[in-house]
């Protein structure tokens, strides 16, 4: 029996996943979590084989949860499930130990295939995610042939968030200024850290100034 924990902040999505999985004799949903900290607490107290993990979770995002799980519970495998197919999200959570990444528009059959593949020790990615990974590898190869520092293309919204970070706006102030949620701000910040290869906000500002990204 494959024991599963479903982690997503949308109750309807979690219930939908559970309704799909409960019809399978070899699968058992042993828990449902709606924020990052509760995932870690549940795994610590209960046996789990695979965590179906949303990349964006309140309290502690999916990237942090995945990293902690890989360090403290390496026996637990993570299948990332997200609506985002951006290179930064995919590569970062894979670097943090996820064994697979599928999109939320994935069908029932592919979801089941992904779960069973990961349980068997394999990796699994949606077709679209595989294309994103291949594109990332190609970009890295091109970048490695250059002598100058490679700066990935930033979206308009990422540039707006970056400028406000440079102006020392807090996460709440950025959200209020751009009329977006705190969760969305954190997503853009995470994407910027990954794209610019920075460790923190100070690093983002330094790189942005060095490469005239604030103009």
- In percent terms, what proportion of residues is strand? 5-15%
Helical coverage, percent range:
40-55%
CA-based gyration radius:
18 Å
Unreliable sequence segments? none
What does the model show?
The structure is a single chain. The chain is of the alpha/beta class. It has 2 domains: 2-133, Rossmann fold; 156-210, Arc Repressor Mutant, subunit A, CATH 1.10.10.10. It has 10 helices and 6 strands; from the N terminus they run E-H-E-H-E-H-E-H-E-H-E-H-H-H-H-H. The protein has helices spanning 11-21, 36-45, 62-72, 87-95, 108-119, 127-144, 156-166, 171-178, 182-195, 201-210; strands at 2-7, 27-33, 50-54, 77-82, 100-103, 124-125. The protein has a 6-stranded parallel sheet, sandwiched between helices. The radius of gyration is 18 Å and the shape is globular. The protein starts with a strand and ends in a 5-residue tail after the last helix. The model has no long low-confidence stretch (mean pLDDT 87).
């Amino acid at each position: 029996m494959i024991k599963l924990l479903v982690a997503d902040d949308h109750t309807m999505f979690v219930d939908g996943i559970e309704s799909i999985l409960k019809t399978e004799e070899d699968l058992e949903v042993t828990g449902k979590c709606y924020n990052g900290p509760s995932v870690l607490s549940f795994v610590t107290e209960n046996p789990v084989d695979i965590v179906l993990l949303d990349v964006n979770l309140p309290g502690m995002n999916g990237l942090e949860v995945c990293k902690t799980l890989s360090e403290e519970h390496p026996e637990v495998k993570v299948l990332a499930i997200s609506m985002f197919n951006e290179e930064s999200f995919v590569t970062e959570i894979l670097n943090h130990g996820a064994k697979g990444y599928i999109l939320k528009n994935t069908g029932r059959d592919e979801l089941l295939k992904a779960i069973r593949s990961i349980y068997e020790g394999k990796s699994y990615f949606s077709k679209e995610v595989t294309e994103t990974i291949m594109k990332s590898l190609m970009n890295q190869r091109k970048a490695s042939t250059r002598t100058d520092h490679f700066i990935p293309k930033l979206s308009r919204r990422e540039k707006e968030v970056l400028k406000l970070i440079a102006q020392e706006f807090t996460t709440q102030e950025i959200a209020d200024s751009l009329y977006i949620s705190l969760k969305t701000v954190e997503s853009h910040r995470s994407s910027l850290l990954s794209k610019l290869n920075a460790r923190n906000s100070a690093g983002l500002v330094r790189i942005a100034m060095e490469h005239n990204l604030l103009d």
